[in-house]
Amino acid sequence: MRIILAQSTAEANEAVASIVYDKLQGLLNPVIGLATGRTMEPVYKILVQKVRARPLNLKQSFFFMLDEYVGLPKNHVSSFKSYIDQHVRLPLGLSEDHFAFPSVHVKDFDESAQNYERAIRESSGIDLQLLGVGQNGHVGFNEPGSSKNSRTRLVKLSPSTLVANRPSFQITENLPAEAISMGIGTIMEAKELVMLATGKNKADVIKYLVNHHNDDKCPVTYLKSHAHFVLVLDPEAASKINLNI
Questions:
Q1: Active-site pick, 136, 142, 192, 236
Q2: Among the four residues 27, 31, 36, 129, which has the most C-beta atoms within 10 Å?
Q3: What is the mean pLDDT of the segment spanning 32-52?
Q4: pLDDT at residue 243 above 90?
């Protein structure tokens, strides 16, 4: 694990956006795994600005989504597809053919998950996977108790994740309690992993990550065994760890 400690949240966002831009620029057929959430919004905004300032040929690029809620109507404003449309696809002027999402409007979720795994393999794998981390250590929607070898599958969201997700939905809406998510094993097969953590609410889980290995109570700790795992932190997220040792 390599840690990049930024001097500010803005610098952390810039660092991650630059990593993604450089990967899109440096590969002939880049395959990027995307994450969602409030943490990633400024990253995508900066990425779009970079592409507009220094245009890239993105015709051969492809993007895989990390997860998607089950139970929301198609094109629901709070779906991750809508999120990616708003923050990535439309600002970059890309068609839907450049993006893959786990199919959630199906009868057979196991088949959907297997098809997603197959699509990732047929793309020759993900070159760079973007990641956030939940306060309980979940990665994607791999909640505590997830196996290091888990694959894309239907998952139930933990109570703490549901609480964290509430601001993304109308107060009168029922929150989706399930999702299809890449598994830890799937994520670990990406060639590079880049995780961004910002804010005081991530300080405890980052401290746990730094001090533990392969702990199923905190799935993010599995990622430390990846050969190319970069953790980007702002000062608040890094406030409970000591890097001067």
A1: 136
A2: 129
A3: 97
A4: no
Are residues 50 and 14 in contact, defined by beta-carbon separation less than 8 angstroms? no
- Catalytic annotation present for 67: yes
Q: State the alpha helices, DSSP H only, in the chain.
A: 9-26, 41-53, 80-84, 90-92, 109-122, 159-165, 184-188, 203-211
How many CA atoms, within 13 angstroms, populate the side-chain half-sphere of residue 244?
2
Catalytic residue among 68, 138, 234, 236: 138
CA–CA gap between residue 181 and residue 36 (Å, rounded): 12
Burial of 223 by CB count in 10 Å (0-12 exposed, 13-18 middle, 19+ buried)?
buried
Does 216 participate in catalysis according to the annotation? no
Q: Which two tokens stand for residue 140?
A: 């994607």
State the fold for domain 2-233.
Rossmann fold (3.40.50)
- So where are the chain's domains? 2-233
Helix (H) / strand (E) element for 64: namely strand 62-65
C-alpha dihedral over 45, 50, 53, 54, to 10 degrees? -150
**Token digits of residue 199:** 């804010």
